[in-house]
Amino acid sequence: MNFLERIFDNLKDRPERAKLIEIHGGNMQGTDGAGILDLVARARGFIDDAGVKPGDRVALLSTNRTRWVAADLAILATGATVVPLYDRQDPGELAAMLTNAEPALLLVADDKLRKTILEAWSDKPDSCKVATFDELFDAKPSHRAPHPVEPDDIVTIIYTSGTSGEAKGVMLSRANVDYMIPETIKRIALATGGRPGVDRVFHFLPFCFAASRIMLWTQLSRPNPLMMSTDLTNLVVEMAVAKPNYFLNVPAVLERIRNGVAAKMEDEGGVGLALYERGVAAYKKLLAKENTFFDNVALGLAERLVFPKIKEKIGPNLEFLISGSAPLTEDTQRWFQMIGISVYQAYGLTETTGIVSLDTPTDVVPGHVGVPLEGQETQIGEGGELLVRGPNTFKGYWRKDNETAKALDADGWFHTGDQVEINGKNLRIIGRIKNLIIPESGHNIAPEPLEERFMKQCPKAESCMLVGHGRPFLTIIVTGDVSADAVESAIEAINGSVPHYRKIRKWHRSREGFSVENGLLTANQKLRRVVIEDHFKQEIDTLYA
Fold first, then answer.
1. C-beta separation of 81 from 58 below 8 A
2. 3 state SS of 265
3. What's the rounded Cα separation, in Å, for the pair 388 and 390?
4. For 343-499, where are the alpha helices, taking DSSP H only?
5. Predicted pLDDT of residue 164
6. Is 182 helix (H, G, I), strand (E, B) or coil?
7. In the chain, which segments carry CATH 3.40.50.12780?
8. Would you state the pLDDT for residue 165?
9. Phi, psi at residue 510, to the nearest 5°?
C-alpha cells in the first residue's frame, strides 16, 4: 500500500484519528476524516472539470489550512503533480517558478493572492487556469477513486533556490515518499516510547517545504490528529492552546524562546533571577566537569524551583522538540536540555525528501544532527562534502538537466554541498561547500544577487560579502573607504524591496580589503567565503552578540 492509499484509507476508516485542527487565537476548529474527504471530493470535481490530466502540474499557493491539505490530496488523487509555493515569497520569484513549472492550474487561497500573483506573472499562458479556494470547494463533488500512482511517478515538485538565485524544481517521486514516511514514523515512535493513543502535535511551518509536508503526511499516515497554526504572529497564544507533546521547529524559534525566557527573568529580577543565573552557570560547569559542591546546590535549587516553571510556561505537556532546516547551536540545545525539554535535531534537504538524519533519544550529541535513516548510504567526498544515496534521493531538477548532472553523479550520489564530520554515526555540519546561505529561518538564500545589488547601491565600497549561514539574520561585511551613511543608505534601499528573510540587519565595515595577497580572494578573484568568515570571526560574532 502506498502512502496516498494509506492516507485515504485512514480518512475513511479512522476519521477521528485522521483529523486536522486549525487554531484560531484561543479557539480550535477541527475537521475529521469524513469532512476532509468531502472537501477532497469537491476539489477533485473542480480539478477534473478544469481538464487537468495525470502528469499535469497543479500549483498550490496558500498558508497552512485544512483546505490546503484537501487541495493537496485532491491534486494527488487526480494523478497530477503538486507544485506547492510559499505564500510569503517574492511575487516575482513565484512568477519565475510558475513559468518554469508550466502548471495546467493554479490554486490560490483568495482573490487578494490571485491579484498579486497575476500582476507579477505577466507572461502567464492562457492554458493555465487560476482559481481561488472558494471556487475550488464550491464545485460538485467527484467520488471517483484516486488515479493509480506508480512508484516512479513524480508526486510533487518543490522549488528551492540555487547559488545563482535561480529557483530549481526538486522532483520527488511516490517511491521517495513511500520510503520516508515509515522511517519518520519509526523515529517518532522511538521519541515517544511507542506509546499507544493520540499525540498532541502542533505545526506552524509552511506545508510547501519538504520536511513540513513529510510531517503532515506522516501524521495522516499514522494516523494522528495535527493541530495547525493559522497566525504566525500569534504563536505564543496558539501553542498555549495546543498544549503539544512535540512539534517541528526551526532554530530561529528556539533561539527566540530561549532569549525571551532570559529577558523575562531579567525583567522580573529578584530571587528568581538569581537562582536562574546561578543554575545556568552551575549547569555549564557540570557539563565541563568543573562543578563544585556549591554548584551542585545551586543547580539543585534551580531544577526544583525555577526550571520546571519555565518548562511549564513553554509547554505543560511538552516532551521533546524536533529542530531542522539549519544547524541548532550546541548552547541552545543544551539550554533546553537543562530545563527538561529534549531537542532532537534533524538534517536534510529538499533533494533528500526532507530528511537525511535525525537524533535518536539514546544517542543525542548536542551540536550534531543525528544518525542517517536506515536504508541510506552516506560518504564523505572532496572537501569534506557529505554525499547521500538511497531511496530518499530526488529524481532530478524539473527541466534542468545540467543542474541535475551537477548534483547527482553517475553512481547516484547526491552532492549535498554541506561540509560535515562524522563522529561515530552522528553527523555534524561544519559549513557549506556551496555558497548557499541558510539562516536559522531555513530559507535558501543565494548571496551573490544581494551582494551585487549592494555594490550597485554603494559604488564607493571596494567589495562586500554576505554572512548568515546558521545565524538568526543576514549581515554584511563591507570593505574600502566608504562612509557609514553610504552603507546604511544602500542597505535601506535593498531592504525595502526584499522579503523579510533577505533583509540585511547589521553590517561591519573594514578598511582592509579582500585580496589575493591576504588570502581572502582566489587567484581568479573569487571570494574565499570560509576564509573570510574565519578572518573576521571576532567582528562577525560581535554583530550577532
1. yes
2. helix
3. 7
4. 401-407, 447-457, 484-495
5. 43
6. helix
7. 3-245, 251-316+318-432
8. 52
9. -125, 130
Contact 130, 106 (CB under 8 A): yes
Q: What is the pLDDT of residues 282-311, one digit of tens each?
A: 999 999 999 999 999 999 999 999 999 999
CA angle 52, 97, 128 (to 5 degrees): 30
Cα 468 from chain centroid? Answer: 16
The DSSP line for 516-541 is TTTTSB-TTS-B-HHHHHHHTHHHHH
Whose CA is closest to 61, among 157, 133, 5? 133
Query: What is the tens place of the pLDDT at every residue in 67-121?
Result: 999 999 999 999 999 999 988 888 988 999 999 999 999 999 999 999 999 999 9
Angle, alpha carbons 464-467-472 (nearest 5°)? 145
Positions of the chain with pLDDT under 50: 162-164
CA-CA distance, 454 to 465, in Å (whole number)?
10
Beta bridge partners of 479: 463, 510
Angle at 432 between CA 430 and CA 435, to 5 degrees: 155
Segments of the chain assigned to CATH 3.30.300.30? 447-543
Please give the grid coordinates belonging to residue 20. 486536522
Query: Which residue in the block uniquely carries the three cell numbers 488523487?
Result: 77
Phi, psi of 463 (to 5 degrees): -165, 175
Domain 251-316+318-432 belongs to what topology?
A: Rossmann fold (3.40.50)
Give the model's pLDDT for residue 410.
92
Question: Quick one: pLDDT at residue 311?
Answer: 93
DSSP string for 473-504: SEEEEEESS--HHHHHHHHHHHHTTS-GGG-E
Question: Does the reported pTM lie above 0.85?
Answer: no
CATH-assigned architecture of domain 3-245: 3-Layer(aba) Sandwich (3.40)
Does domain 447-543 fall under CATH 3.30.300.30? My reply is yes
Joined grid coordinates for residue 246: 512535540
CA dist 460 → 230, 318, 499, 534, 539 (Å): 45, 52, 26, 25, 22
Q: Find the farthest-apart pair of alpha carbons in the chain and give their distance in angstroms, rounded.
A: 76
DSSP-assigned letters across all residues of 435-446: S-B--TT---B-
Length of the chain equals 545
Would you call the peptide bond into 125 cis, given omega within 30 degrees of 0 as the criterion? Answer: no
pLDDT at residue number 163: 39
The pLDDT value given to residue 157: 98
CA gap 248, 212 in Å, rounded: 8
pLDDT of residue 24: 93
